[in-house]
Amino acid sequence: MSITNETLALDSAAQDLLFREAHTVSAFTDEPVSDEQVQAIYDLVKYAPTAFNQQPLRVLLVRSTEARERLVAHLSDGNKAKTLAAPLVAVLAADNEFHEELPELFPAFPQAKDVFFSERPVREASAGFNAALQAGYFLLGVRAAGLAAGPMTGFDAAGVTKEFFPEGDHTALLVVNIGTAAAEGAWFPRSPRLAYDQVVTTV
């Protein structure tokens, strides 16, 4: 089956920016990432779907040198240098107390706070899954802003959680370096992807 650009609503340039030409980036220029750019990203990605509109994703921007060093202490060795050098680093976390916002965020059924999420293990499972959905949108938002993202799971999640969320109400999920991709050596050659028939079945 042949797929043409006309099959999709986005034009070819937007498809390339968000998907085909996008890479996980390890090297950036020194061009800063402003708070205004992050705000623009969030204004796009806040519409990501979540169960009960719970929106558990929380984003911690790590800007100061002191905070960057605290974070890097919990990263795997291969992620330390590039994180120290990145223009901006974001820690994406799940708010395990998201249910406190449900009466406002899900007015169609405000009782959901107590009916479905009164128990901490249930909240943690739901927060982790739905924040991961939002994290995927966040990465696309970074790309849509004309920036590049370097998401990493190579870190001590428990250590980062304790370091930056000591009250225990958040769980660190992902560390993302953000900036403008360097002209050379910004990414590795693209690895293979599974074919359509390997992923999609019909019943």
UniProtKB/TrEMBL annotation:
Which InterPro entries is this protein grouped with? Nitroreductase (IPR029479), Nitroreductase-like (IPR000415), Nitroreductase_HadB/RutE (IPR050461)
Q: Where is the Nitroreductase domain?
A: 21-179
Q: What GO molecular function terms would the record report?
A: oxidoreductase activity
Q: Which Pfam families match?
A: Nitroreductase
Checking Gene3D superfamilies in the record gives: NADH Oxidase
Official protein name in the record: 3-hydroxypropanoate dehydrogenase
Recorded source organism is: Kitasatospora viridis
